[in-house]
Amino acid sequence: MGKVKILAIESSCDETAAAVVADGHEILSNIIYSQIDLHTIYGGVVPEIASRKHIEKINPVIEAALSKADCTLSDIDAVAVTFGPGLVGPLLVGVAEAKAIAFAANLPLIGVHHIQGHICANYIEHPDLEPPFMSLVVSGGHTHLVRVVDHGKYEVLGRTRDDAAGEAFDKVARAIGLGYPGGPKIEEAAKRGNPDAIPFPRAKVNDNEYDFSFSGLKSAVLNYINHAEMKNETVNRDDLAASFQKAVVDVLTEHSIMSIRQYGVRDFALAGGVASNGALRESIAKACKAEGVNFYCPSPLYCTDNAAMIGVRAYYEYINYRFADLTLNAVPSIAIDYRS
Ligand code: KG4
Ligand code: ZN
Questions:
Q1: Domain spanning 131-298 has what CATH number?
Q2: For the chain, which residues make up each domain, given as ranges?
Q3: What is the greatest pairwise CA distance in the chain?
Q4: Claim: this prediction has a pTM higher than 0.90
Q5: Ligand 2 center–CA 262 separation, angstroms
Q6: Which atom of ligand 1 is nearest to the CA of 142?
Q7: CATH fold group of domain 5-120+306-318
Q8: What is the pLDDT of residues 72-118, one digit of tens each?
Q9: Cα angle, residue 176 at apex, residues 174 and 182 outer, rounded to 5°
Q10: Environment of ion ligand 2 (residues, CB < 5 A)
């Protein structure tokens, strides 16, 4: 029997992406059309503009993914698509497209949870990684500390009560005039700054020690900038970026260590757009080493939104015969453990 080839589509935010994935970890193609430049002038993603661009780009992106993989639809075994969480308009473009292809080519359809996809990005370069393991997913919309019990079975230990880690990066970047997307820009500035220059708070959530809260940190940064302006002092942006990044990284690392100790895990996997941050990768890798735990993290290309990770997650649905039908709809907000 030949390899299982899945055509995967991702359009939950501002990346129009398609990939062909063989047997769950071999990436035959991974095409990403990033709309970032379009949204930069507005300081963030504008949903309506994103939807329109997805409609324009989705067919060429899928054609490119098939052609790069040297495939036609007749070589494909299933069509997978992100159905949530994300922006409803952008999600609908991908979902409608996947349903149309599945119907026209008579292929099984698989709906993939975006955050589960982020975690599965780890399997691409580490096919040896198997559940159970602990995972920290940090993206623009989500911050989750999750136990991956099995393929498709997740237990949430902690989540953010307010802003996601990536959202905090984006908001702070905007406040100091670095623009969108903030994560990579803060990371660049932080390399030139002193992480101990400004003592920003590390928030604790009282009723669940695994939960996160980043809005207090964001307010502390804004207050710091306001005070400096009132006193006519200039803010050292590099020091501010470095101190802010350190505060985020410290909290994420501390919670990760706590979970490793409590659950006695063997493997720890970082995931999501913020996982491409070098300081975070280094800090969690170091903590894992000290705890005697294997550390995994996708290459930066597979940390931020892509369709390859959706194809990987879909493979485990495929081998367990978990298919969607043509009533599949976009779901803007849906928990990672919706089916556990
Ligand atoms: O996973 P992702 O591509 O999209 C969502 O599912 O949200 O994550 C995007 C987020 C943005 O907030 C972006 O600022 C952040 O990931 N990000 C970073 C870095 N690269 C992207 N944050 C910190 N450091 C980075 N190098
Ligand atoms: Zn994402």
A1: 3.30.420.40
A2: 5-120+306-318, 131-298
A3: 72
A4: yes
A5: 28
A6: 7
A7: Nucleotidyltransferase; domain 5 (3.30.420)
A8: 999 999 999 999 999 999 999 999 999 999 999 999 999 999 999 99
A9: 40
A10: 139, 305
